[in-house]
Amino acid sequence: MKPGMTIREVEETDAEALLALHRALDQETAFMLIEPGERSPDIEAERERIRNVRSRSNQTLLVADIGGGWWGMSRFSEDHIVAIATQHIW
């Protein structure tokens, strides 16, 4: 793990930051399911998605934080990785 990196579970209060990370990732790669500009800007909808994942005992959504800036996220299900994405910051 990179020095200064913290990995933690996403909380509802992280909706705005998670949405910003998704938007940044949309711009950086052609491998996302959503094209740049297609992602809904609705923070409440993002909170609902976070609540949905957190309410499931077999799923988790993690973020990697380096110095107060989010570097990446991973979503895991009981038996597989659902998604993993990182920003190019170094």
Keywords:
4-stranded antiparallel β-sheet, Aminopeptidase, alpha+beta, 90 residues, 30% helix
Description:
The chain starts with a strand and ends with a strand. It is built from 2 helices and 4 strands. The chain has a single domain (about 5-85), classed as Aminopeptidase, CATH 3.40.630.30. Strands 1-2-3-4 form a 4-stranded antiparallel beta sheet, covered by helices on one side. Helix 1 packs across helix 2 (about 45-55). About 30% of the residues lie in helices and about 30% in strands. It is globular, with a radius of gyration of 13 Å. The model has no long low-confidence stretch (mean pLDDT about 75). It is α+β, with helices and mostly antiparallel strands.
Oligomer: single chain
Strand order in the sheet with the most strands: 1-2-3-4
Structural class: alpha+beta
Roughly how many Å is the radius of gyration?
Answer: 13 Å
Known CATH architecture: 3-Layer(aba) Sandwich
Number of contiguous helices:
2
Q: What is the approximate shape?
A: globular
> Mean pLDDT across all residues, rounded?
76
In N-to-C order, the SSE pattern is EHHEEE
The CATH topology name reads Aminopeptidase
Major beta-sheet overview: 4 strands, antiparallel
Structural domains: how many:
1
**Unreliable runs:** none
Per CATH, the superfamily is Gcn5-related N-acetyltransferase (GNAT)
